[in-house]
Amino acid sequence: MENIILVGSGGCMRELLWQIEEANKRMPRYTVLGYIDLVEDLAMDAVGHCKYLGDDDYLLNLPMKTGVVICIGSPEKRRDLVAMYRQNPNLYFPSIVLSDEGMAPDYSIGEGSIVSRDCTISTNVTIGNFVFVNIGSIVCHDTVIGDYTTLAPRVTLCGNVEVGTMSYVGVSSTVKQGITIANGVTVGAGAVVVDDVDKYLTVVGIPARPL
């Protein structure tokens, strides 16, 4: 069993806590020591036992080797927290894969990334560092996802897709095969991306167009 501490107490964290607990029923892998946030969230009792450990200072002063899982959907907030927590050499960032099926044997995944349950990760897929792949997403063959990018629930990347760093791909959106999405892009919910997207744009609609 690997000891981990969760960061955050919002819906994203509670959802991941539930997924980890369900995964542990099938094959025990993680011991959740507790969670970190600015203040204690009393709603934790409604989800399952998860002890409040303190704020960021708790992690920055932790004297033992411990895994940290950042349960926050915002790419920018994840990046900033990672930069802060790296000040403590005792902290490391395991990759958490919660899908038991639909995972090709030759995908690769970087440090601190999360793949939620009910996802499909196909052959020759590269997932960067601190990527968050939400529930039910499909990532088809030969796709590359850059560091700190978030795929919202039920995103479909249709193969040979490249998504840059620090991008956010909205819920139930689809990216056509062979498309390149640059760094810092936001794809709106339900969008269908059929053309390459330049960096820092927000695209919405069917077909997706810049705002």
Structure description:
By secondary structure, this protein is of the alpha/beta class. It folds into two domains: 2-94, Rossmann fold, CATH 3.40.50; 96-197, UDP N-Acetylglucosamine Acyltransferase, domain 1. It is 15% helix and 28% strand. It has helices at 11-26, 56-60, 75-85, and strands at 2-7, 30-36, 52-54, 66-70, 91-92, 96-97, 108-109, 114-115, 120-121, 126-127, 132-133, 138-139, 144-145, 150-151, 156-157, 162-163, 168-169, 174-175, 180-181, 186-187, 192-193, 202-204, 209-210. The strands form four sheets. The protein has an eight-stranded mixed β-sheet, with no helix packed on it. The longest helix has 16 residues, at 11-26. The chain starts with a strand and ends with a strand.
Shape: globular
Number of domains: 2
The total of beta strands comes to: 23
> Class by helix and strand content?
alpha/beta
Helical stretch tally? 3
**What is the N-to-C succession of helices and strands?**
EHEEHEHEEEEEEEEEEEEEEEEEEE
CATH level 1 name of the largest domain? Mainly Beta
Keywords:
globular, 8-stranded mixed beta sheet, 5-stranded parallel beta sheet, UDP N-Acetylglucosamine Acyltransferase, domain 1, alpha/beta, 211 residues, Rossmann fold, 2 domains
Summarize, please.
This protein has helices at residues 11-26, 56-60, 75-85; strands at residues 2-7, 30-36, 52-54, 66-70, 91-92, 96-97, 108-109, 114-115, 120-121, 126-127, 132-133, 138-139, 144-145, 150-151, 156-157, 162-163, 168-169, 174-175, 180-181, 186-187, 192-193, 202-204, 209-210. The protein is 15% helix and 28% strand.
